[in-house]
Amino acid sequence: MTREYLVVYEKGANNWSAFSPDVPGCGSLGDTLEDTRANMREALEVYLSETAKAGEPLPEAAATNVNFNEFDPGHETKEYFVEWLSVPLPRSLPFTEETQAA
Fold it and tell me: pTM for the whole thing?
């Protein structure tokens, strides 16, 4: 089973960074967009796995848009890439209505 999270990639001077509005505090960096995507997928997988191990509910994939003024009010970043990133859900999750809906 997988879940798709909205991910925003920002082009910096020397690298890319990424975050998901649905998973605060989970982000990633990389030299290229492709590296950053792979690192972000791994960061989300670890986050979801640790959240499930702790018995906490997984964050819903609810974001459908991004307010760029919220995190870049001066519009300093000039290049963004936004996508829904498919992430495998932890295998240790019990089969419930919540995980079935994902």
Answer: 0.85
The counts of H helices and E strands in the chain are 3, 4
Which residues have CB under 8 Å from 83's CB, separation 6+?
6, 7, 9
Closest CA to 5 of 56, 55, 66: 66
| Average pLDDT over all residues of the chain | 90
Domain extent for 49: 2-101
CATH number of domain containing 89:
3.30.160.250
Rg (CA), the chain: 14
Burial of residue 49, with CB atoms counted within 10 A of its CB: 0-12 exposed, 13-18 middle, 19 or more buried: middle
pLDDT tens by residue, 6-42:
999 999 999 999 999 999 999 999 999 999 999 999 9
The rounded distance, in Å, linking the Cα atoms of 83 and 80 is 10
